[in-house]
């Protein structure tokens, strides 16, 4: 099995359990539609770089060079067939954002739901203007229910030495019809440039486990943890769409959203993530390899990152594909028909259609496209990101013995 994460880094993140007691109110079950990020242009190398940074890994020189070369143009790159780029990339597949109301009266921000972190942080009135690039900001002084959490700060460090950090307030937070009063809202005083560049994303809603929350001196509970007492069932579900808006549900499972049955697997919470072990994989119509792969289910990561041998086996089935340092990862001819990729969960198998692996031409007019499955070798964690999650209906069960449920759809 592959280790989930760098233990030293995790130890630095682990802090004591929160002692505050926010209250959940309103409906015990809600459904929230995502919205499109209209300003998001996908660059494969940049997506890989952001994953390195998120998991605290130094970015290799070859990847930095690829990002610099491929982001020097302002052209919008689209999914392509052959060498002609004709369709703008569908940002819903690459940057999922959801409207969240904070404060009284409500200030609506579009936030990224991230099951790979545990901080609810936002661009704010404390963020320097030089680090704001069109984002909507939260201003606590405009909310009658905001309260500064005296002496508390938060900070998240990234692999390039940058960080996001600031002060902490509590306020009323509503997602769909689900409201939590006294929710910790972390205001950014400093924002990493990787977030500043995404003008439509106003922050994150962390949905991993509370032990990953970075507020000091006392860690704060996630929105989901605080909402559980008021939910009909201690679950939320992710039904991400392909070329379409997805849906998050809290407090219930929509039986019409999947086919067959839901297969559950135990979650390894020891490192704060929704960790689980896949039972193996297959490529296209090939035989199933019963190779255990430990990883995490992470809605905050776009691509699928797996062991190098697994990724190599996938691209071996695509003529003309290669691992390109100048492109930032595996690429393939845009004219290629991509094989599906299947991974096991318990006794079930989830199949990712081949077209989900196509993330468009690496640059305008190029006949090479960027692949949706990349190597996790240098990142240190296998990540079942949005590429995998949108192929399934996924249940995140926050019971005393947490589980992940997977179903086809």
What this model shows, in words?
This protein is mainly beta. It has a domain at 98-228: Acid Proteases (Cathepsin D, subunit A, domain 1). It has 7 helices and 28 strands. The protein has helices at 7-13, 44-54, 61-70, 193-196, 223-227, 308-315, 386-389; strands at residues 23-26, 30-33, 78-81, 84-88, 98-102, 107-114, 120-122, 147-157, 163-175, 178-190, 203-206, 235-239, 247-250, 263-266, 275-278, 281-283, 293-297, 304-306, 322-324, 329-333, 341-345, 348-352, 358-361, 368-371, 373-375, 382-384, 393-397, 403-407. It has a 6-stranded mixed barrel with strand order 5-6-11-7-10-9. Strands 2-13-12-27-28-14 form a 6-stranded antiparallel sheet, with no helix packed on it. The longest helix is centred in the first third of the chain and has 11 residues, at 44-54. GO terms for molecular function: aspartic-type endopeptidase activity.
In angstroms, what is the radius of gyration? Answer: 20 Å
Order of strands across the main sheet: 5-6-11-7-10-9
Q: How would you classify the helix and strand content by structural class? A: mainly beta
Q: If helices are DSSP runs of H or I spanning 4 or more residues, what is the number of helices?
A: 7
| Share of helical residues | 10-25%
Q: Note the gap between the termini.
A: 28 Å
CATH architecture of the domain at 98-228: Beta Barrel
Main beta sheet, described?
6 strands, mixed, barrel
**What's the total number of strands?**
28
Protein name: Peptidase A1 domain-containing protein
Domain Peptidase A1: 96-407
Pfam family, one: Asp
Signal peptide: 1-20
């Amino acid at each position: 099995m592959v280790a989930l994460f760098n233990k030293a880094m995790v130890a630095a993140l682990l802090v004591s359990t929160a002692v505050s007691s926010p209250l959940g109110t309103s409906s015990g079950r809600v459904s929230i539609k995502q919205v499109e990020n209209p300003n998001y242009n996908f660059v494969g190398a940049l997506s890989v770089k952001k994953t390195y940074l998120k998991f605290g890994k130094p970015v290799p020189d070859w990847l930095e060079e690829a990002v610099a070369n491929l982001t020097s143009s302002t052209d919008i790159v689209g999914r392509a067939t052959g060498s002609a780029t004709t369709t703008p990339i569908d940002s819903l597949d690459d940057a999922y954002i959801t409207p969240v109301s904070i404060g009284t009266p409500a200030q609506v921000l579009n936030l990224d739901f991230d099951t790979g972190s545990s901080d609810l942080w936002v661009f704010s009135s404390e963020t320097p203007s030089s680090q704001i690039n069109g984002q909507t900001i939260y201003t606590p002084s405009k909310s009658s229910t905001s309260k500064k959490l005296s002496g508390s700060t938060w900070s998240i460090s990234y692999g390039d030495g940058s960080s996001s950090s600031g002060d902490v307030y509590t306020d009323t937070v509503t997602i769909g019809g689900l409201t939590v009063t006294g929710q910790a809202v972390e205001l950014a005083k400093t924002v990493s440039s990787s977030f500043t560049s995404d003008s439509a994303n106003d922050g994150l809603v962390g949905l991993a486990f509370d032990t990953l929350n970075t507020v000091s001196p006392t860690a704060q509970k996630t929105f989901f943890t605080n909402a559980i007492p008021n939910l009909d069932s201690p679950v939320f579900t992710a039904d991400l769409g392909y070329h379409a808006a997805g849906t998050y549900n809290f407090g219930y499972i929509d039986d019409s959203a999947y086919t067959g049955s839901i297969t559950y697997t135990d979650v390894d919470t020891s490192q704060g993530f929704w960790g689980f072990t896949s039972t193996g994989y297959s490529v296209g119509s090939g035989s199933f390899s019963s190779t255990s792969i430990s990883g995490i289910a992470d809605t905050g990561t776009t691509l699928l990152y797996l062991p190098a041998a697994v990724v190599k086996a996938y691209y071996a089935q695509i003529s003309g594909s290669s691992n390109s340092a100048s492109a930032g990862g595996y690429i393939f001819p845009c004219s290629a028909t991509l094989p599906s990729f299947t991974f096991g969960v318990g006794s079930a198998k989830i199949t990712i259609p081949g077209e989900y692996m196509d993330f468009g031409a690496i640059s305008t007019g190029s006949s090479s496209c960027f692949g949706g499955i990349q190597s996790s070798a240098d990142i240190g964690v296998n990540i079942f990101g949005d590429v995998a999650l949108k192929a399934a209906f996924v249940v995140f069960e926050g019971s005393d013995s947490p589980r992940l449920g997977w179903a086809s759809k």
